[in-house]
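Supplementary Note 2. Why include the ligand at all?

Several targets in our set were suspected to adopt different conformations when bound, so apo predictions alone were not considered sufficient. For every target with a known small-molecule partner we therefore ran a joint prediction. The input for flavin-adenine dinucleotide is given below.
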Amino acid sequence: MIPVSFEFFPPNTPAGAERLRSVRAELDSHRPEFYSVTYGAGGATQEKTQATVLEIAAAGQTVVPHLSCVGASREGIRTLLEDWRARAIRRIVALRGDLPSGMVQGGDFRFASDLVGFIREATGDAFHIEVAAYPEVHPQARNAQADLDAFVTKMNAGANSAITQFFYNADAYFAFVDAVRARGIDAPIVPGVMPIQAYFKVARFAEVCGAEVPRWVARRMEGYGDDTASVRAFGLDLVSTMCDRLLAGGAPSIHFYTLNQADLCHEVIRRIQPSS
Ligand SMILES: Cc1cc2nc3c(=O)[nH]c(=O)nc-3n(C[C@H](O)[C@H](O)[C@H](O)COP(=O)(O)OP(=O)(O)OC[C@H]3O[C@@H](n4cnc5c(N)ncnc54)[C@H](O)[C@@H]3O)c2cc1C
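The joint prediction is reproduced in token form.
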């Protein structure tokens, strides 16, 4: 089986939580390495993340909470880490996170590397720490070189592995991995892949997080307009072909940004599964 992991966001309503349970039941058949749960900047989202994390853990599955440090205090983070440790949660995704627009950064941490260093200082080797990677360069980075330097600093602060921002250009991933390896870092870098459900949504996400939708893909998708069947078919071909290339080129596994939906992930995995 191809190694995979799946990312969820914490649902906002009881109906969303129920839907997520059935999504998880469907995705279980792929025996994921883990399910990760995103973590927003506001306090309310933190509680929702925790509720989703605890539910997945209670089901006996490996759950990986995301932890963003923007605006957070060292004591707040320490308390959360202790809680997770007591619940036998052993892997986390450590992030800086983003402040809602207009807010000014406060808190005890500036960059994700500060958080990674703090987690190691406070908990030793208790956690496997994942961090974020940006094959197409983080949108706030001064330039690609500075972003690579920041990534190397973050790994050297004690991260074990990385998951990338989504992309639709496998060459960007390979070039990034080569650049990281050239800096002496051997840690796994897992491509984050977002299947395309609704093109306008993906285009909006891409704009915000600095991912590129190649022009030819954008033009084809725009041309399909409301023809959701064609968007789905073209998106599935595009993403499955890219995953095949990534795995053939040495990607250790695929991390799916599920957007709390199972069907497209299911179909991509079915297509990329080696025939036995
Ligand atoms: C796999 C994945 C999961 C994510 N999950 C979440 C989530 O759950 N919740 C959420 O809010 N967001 C999430 N994000 C988005 C992420 O929080 C944003 O992209 C955020 O803007 C950067 O977070 P980071 O951890 O990559 O930050 P950092 O690694 O700190 O980098 C942020 C910026 O600062 C620069 N930088 C870093 N260190 C230095 C330094 N020492 N000097 C100068 N510049 C520096 C970097 O080049 C980059 O431009 C996720 C992203 C990915 C890829």
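The chain has a mean pLDDT of 95. The beta strands are 4-8, 35-37, 63-68, 91-95, 128-133, 161-166, 189-193, 254-257. Comparable summaries for the other entries are listed in the accompanying table.
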